[in-house]
Amino acid sequence: MNTLAEALWNSLSAAAVSPEGVAAPVAILWTDPDAQWRPLVVELSKSFPELYTLGDFVPGKHVGPAIWLKCVVERALPDASPPAGHIPVLYLPGLSRQVLRSGSECPVLFQPLIELEYRGAMWHQRNGRDWTAEAFLTSEQGLGLDVALDARTREALLRALPLLINEPLAGLRGRRLEAEDFDRLAIGDPVRDILMWMNDPTGSVQLWAGSRWSTFCDVCQREFGLDPEQAHPREAGEALLNGGDRWDDVWRRFCEAPKGYAGVARLLREVTPKDFFVGEGRQPTVNETEEARLAKELDALAKLPHRVACARVLELEKEHGKRREWVWAQIGQSALAVALQPLARLAQAAQRALGGADLASIIRTYAEDGWQCDDAAMAALASPGSSSDMATVSRAVRSLYEPWLDRSARAFQDALLKEQAPASLVGEIATEKDVCLLFVDGLRYDIARRLAISLEARGLKSHLKARLTTVPSVTATAKPAATPVRQLIEGREAAEDFQPLFRDSNQVASAQRLRDAMAKKGVEVIEPGEVKIPVGAEAGGWSESGQFDHLGHSLQGELPRHLDLQVEALVERIESLLNGGWTAVRVITDHGWLLLPGGLPKVDLPHYLAASKWARCATLKGESASTVPEYGWFWNPHVRIAVPHGIGAFLAGNEYSHGGISPQESITPDLLVERTIAKITAKIGAISWRGLRCRVQIQGASAGLKVDLRQNWKQAQSLAAAAKEVDAEGIGSLAVRDDSLEGSAASVVLLDAAGQVIDHQPTTIGEIS
Known about the structure:
This protein is an alpha/beta fold. The longest helix is centred in the middle third of the chain and has 31 residues, at about 385-415.
């Protein structure tokens, strides 16, 4: 998040993240009643093709009336619709969220957009207000900058907004920003100005008409030896490419925020350096030539023996890795060089065979470092790039990954066949007081490793171990075995759908019946998204989260692009449970999965042999003989389960699947998460306002606590007359000293005796409770 443009777009993109079980929004609505953001939107639209603006129709400019925007959302206009997989962002200047929500009172011209409030997502502050420029820059939900709130600074901020878009944020942090800081952006920065002119020559002339244009031309002649009145922008491009003197300063500034200067990048493609020895990293044509060469090399991997292909990728990494440091990688023009980093990790890991003397040693080897091969493959498949680039990466992943994946699965299958009682190796899940079991469908071992890293970054301690799952590795069989009521369940004589029964009732062990059985056993069953404080939960808790398996079946090979978002949602869920009072959260799952771009290889199993047949497993009829490995069903070993050799599939066309026997499907994570510090019990409860006086109720208050009001909870500057101690009844009262702050976003913070923030909650000054 280097610039305002990037931070703004990241925040808009975050609005598209849906809660578990909720469909993705069809559009993101950006309301702006005062049209404060309009100058930035013009610049943003050059870099983000999914951004559209409400206004009079302008052909080819992504600007049109409400009914036209509705057609864009419905993708009824092929030439104007956003790229596949991208959610359109609708910028609505002059329209507030409140007006849009007013239904029939909304102006007729805007009414086609009303229903999008329900199918789309609104980009707004937590308090429901529209994002103003000031709020986004100063709020902890936005950039968290320390900005003076006097009228002069507010006016200067709005004047400087178009200039802030590509300003590095690092230079704005760590100090209080006042009117002079924003006014300084408008003058005295010839490096920025010449980049803006090179980026959009016609627009700059129009924007700077009059004395400012004359001043700019004069400064350019003095400092850069170029007269914009006479020179073509290509001359500036040539000078920038060749460098030297002040042009090196321009190049450094361009490299700080290249996404904001798409026009400069295009300009540099049109020119050639005068000096052959000019750094190749400055030349976009050199980068494009190298990308094309790398694409051919990656496509050629399919014709090479596996070991040779792995070695070749490592050589290519040595040749092309340096291009990730070039500026072109930042603007998506070195997609293959970026993807080459995880591809090289995959090539390195895929050269090490996953094996061992027995099943236990294979499980141990996979849990120690074998998972890294899977992790590298998923990272490569999640690399950004065009559809052509990603097709090339997918083919390369298949060339490197498939042989290792198949050999590992066959070794694992052979080892499991040698076990006398494999079902006994599936560990039981026990309950513990004040420990919540969090079941995540399809959490694979390598993804659990990512989860553990993310948790530790949040200050949480985790311990990960491997656990063998059932045969077959499908939810119907494996989930009941991962619950604390496993002993109440048994298998029947047939297993067409792989579902066991509750012994006493002879009813199928469905998800709801499993939850009901746990509740009867004294387990606190918590609904997804709900947080219950453990009150005498001797048998612990149970909750469910995550959409890994659901997304895998629906998205197939596109799943890797969604893994990080799912991991982040899981981190939030674990934190919420710990914050709710649970001593620890134990994350468990039912199975992993296989994912191979291009599809798992087809294995034939005659239909007359199988009672039921899924992609990675089948039940065999009677005494029929097959040519594939056979295992006993976990719930009844007399029921014969057939699985394909290696990573094959009985059904064609599956890139994602599970149910078979392989390290990826069968070795599952068991992750215990705890806090590294003592649990915080004091929290901010109710916040109420009476005029400019704020009343704060603290839950679990103790001696020495104070409350304060801040613009940003991370910054020590108070908006109140003074921080106040919490009284014996857990009440703190704060008075705001500046009545001009009424209606501004702020944070109520709870401080310990040492002045450390132990809790914070957003509020709006003077908000009517």
